[in-house]
Amino acid sequence: MGHHRWQPEDSESVWELLTLEKWCAASRLQRSWYELDICALNLEWAVDQDLMEVDGRVIKLLDLKSRGVEILAELEKQVFANQGSIVASYTVHMEHVFEWMNASQKQMAWTKNGLLDSRMSESGEDFSSCMEILGNKRKAKESGDCVEGIRRRRKSWWKQKELLHYAEEQENPGRKL
Known about the structure:
Layout: H1 8-66, H2 73-112, H3 127-143, H4 145-171
């Protein structure tokens, strides 16, 4: 086997490969930014749906109170607390999404300007490892704490629904709901 002798064309090929890799990395980062943007839109939509549901409960609660139906203070407090917890949860999630979108945008700018891998995110990790960590945190929450939270919310929702149904029965005895 003969040794390959370095040719000036080889360095040109290397530069072409490096440029291609730089633009591929920027493209992947741009794609992740758009995916995060879609995630933010989906989150906003879900929160709007949740808030409409809570607003419906608040209106029903106020309607029952205006008709003179006695509403348990605990139920009233819980209905209003749900609205606050939805807004607080939304705020936290959106902050995280926007934080990652900003990190992605910064990394894209560095990549397009030829600074690929020479910069790190503010936390000291590159963007892809940050995304991996975020994904692992999300998976852990989905598999553990988050599932329990969903179960608690569903149980709480059914309890509220039963209490509102009970209040309606008290208001209209004999009427089938």
